[in-house]
Design a protein that fits this description.
The protein is of the alpha+beta class. The chain has 21 helices and five strands. The N terminus is likely disordered. The structure holds adenosine-5'-triphosphate. Adenosine-5'-triphosphate (ATP) binds next to helix 1, strand 1 and strand 3. This is Protein kinase domain-containing protein.
Length: 462
């Protein structure tokens, strides 16, 4: 359901261009574009037959382009159910928007953006053919009592990722100066529109009002409540009590920044994605977050691609640590400095070390003993020194637990015990986690002192 939204919010605010600008784009690009996207063309007769000549029964919605129909037809990728948007010139969105949609969606594909399967440009008809999003549009679910806060956050994250993707390779990659000049691709207005969507999701209602509607327009209401610190009162009733305060705070802060009147004050979509991910992270218990990830959930991956020089520097630190030139303690001190550094490069090095460590985790059982000890110490000390937070902490704790569950004579068990010894003093912070550890019978059999220590610590807080 986020798919339809992710794409459509782009258009909502783009009513500011002048007639002149539109004409300029049209005259220069039309023929050229038509040839370039020849392979996506679908004949009008195919479309009229699929929609039973645009029968009302097949109409599934209406938006800024005009009516949307459902139908089954053969396109470049085979036969499937599709959504067809029939451009209605009287609606205001014309040729440039039509071509922009074709250009953007055929060049840039992303799992959170609905795919364009083809188009028709014959006579007076302009029709866009999309994959059919079986869950339709997010607005249908806004005031659904069953849509939980976590589900809402995941939808927002998916849509934000799609939009962030379009903002990065999309506009830079194609970079038609005419589009950029005329403001047809304005990232900041997308961000504003996305902020509105975020508040719609939070408040369980659309931003707009119609004559019958008793609501005030959402943005005005949000601004007032934000200033008066009463946003809680407009949060949708079914989710209000379940949202953890930090999750709500992260969500509102970023959503409100999207609505800033000053364009420069609005965040980049990549910041929006990151903050929404932390909002989810605050909401979900860390170990649960992990199991979602393992279940092929929403892809809460912590690893990001890093520049080659960052990777090279990080590799050299690992190399030095494994060869003994750099002690694990020195590595930890350096990482603690880098984590808090105001320099972006140093922060990236910190993130890259953590990402590499997690990626390497599956190969630890192949490591020679001395290297395995070094990474186990590093793991344990990262946890002890609070250098991992939220999701990464959850992943590290889970890795240690999984390792402890391996047979007592295995390399991974030894990795688990070495790491655990390093952060024993923090264990009481996670009583549930302790219970999982205490259930490992071979740990009791082989390392009774660790088990006794944990039991005593738990006893103190009970
Ligand atoms: N790919 C699709 N799959 C399923 N339903 C769709 C699809 N695209 C659109 N729809 C349905 O048609 C409706 C209208 O969609 P459309 O994208 O034209 O406009 P919108 O999202 O309401 O806003 P706007 O065009 O003004 O940005 C949607 O609300 C949705 O219910």
């Amino acid at each position: 359901m986020s798919l339809v939204y992710a794409v459509n919010i782009k258009r909502r605010e783009q009513c500011y261009r002048t007639q002149q600008e539109t004409q300029k784009i049209l005259s220069i690009n039309h023929l050229h574009l038509s040839k370039q996207f020849e392979h996506l063309k679908i004949k009008l007769e195919v479309i009229t037959s699929a929609t039973n000549n645009f029968a009302d029964d097949n109409c599934i919605g209406r938006g800024g382009f005009g009516k949307v129909y459902k139908g089954k037809l053969l396109h470049s990728k085979g036969e499937s159910i599709v959504a067809l948007k029939r451009l209605d010139p009287t609606f205001g969105q014309g040729n440039p928007e039509f071509w922009k949609e074709i250009i953007m969606l055929s060049l840039y594909k992303h799992e959170n953006i609905v795919s364009l399967l083809g188009f028709c440009d014959e006579g007076n008809e302009k029709i866009l053919v999309y994959e059919y999003a079986s869950k339709r549009s997010l607005d249908l679910y806004l005031n659904d009592d069953d849509l939980t806060w976590i589900e809402r956050l995941k939808i927002c994250i998916g849509a934000a990722r799609g939009l962030a993707y379009l903002h990065n390779p999309g506009t830079i990659g194609y970079c038609d100066p005419i589009y950029v000049e005329t403001g047809l691709l304005t990232k900041e207005s997308d961000v504003h529109a996305f902020g509105v969507v975020l508040f719609e999701v939070l408040c369980g209602r659309l931003c707009t009002i119609n004559k019958k509607d008793i609501h005030q327009p959402l943005t005005g209401l949000v601004r007032r409540c934000y200033k008066e610190k009463t946003i809680n009162e407009i949060v949708f009733h079914s989710i209000r009590d379940g949202i953890k305060p930090k999750s709500l705070e992260a969500f509102i802060t970023i959503a409100y920044r999207c609505l800033k009147r000053n364009l420069e004050d609005r965040p980049l979509m990549t910041d929006v994605v990151r903050t929404l991910e932390s909002a989810l992270d605050y909401q979900v218990d860390q170990l649960n977050t992990l199991s979602l990830k393992n279940d092929g959930g929403p892809g809460l991956s912590t690893s990001k691609p890093f520049e080659d020089d960052i990777e090279a520097e990080v590799n050299s630190y690992f190399h030095q640590m494994f060869s003994g030139q750099l002690t694990v303690d020195a590595m930890i001190q350096m990482l603690a400095r880098y984590k808090e550094s105001s320099e972006k490069r140093e922060q990236s090095i910190f993130e890259c070390v953590i990402a590499n460590l997690f990626e390497e985790h599956k190969f630890f059982n192949k490591y020679p003993e001395s290297q395995l000890k070094a990474v186990a110490d590093l793991f344990g000390l990262l946890i002890k020194n609070k250098l991992l937070t939220h999701l990464t902490l959850g992943i590290a704790l889970r890795s240690v637990l999984d390792a402890l569950r391996k047979p007592a004579d295995s390399k991974m068990f030894s990795f688990g015990t070495i790491a655990l010894e390093k952060f024993l003093e923090r264990l009481v912070e996670w009583p549930q986690y302790c219970q999982h550890i205490l259930k490992i019978s071979h740990l009791r059999d082989t390392r009774l002192e660790l088990v006794t220590f944990i039991e005593k610590e738990l006893h103190k807080i009970s």
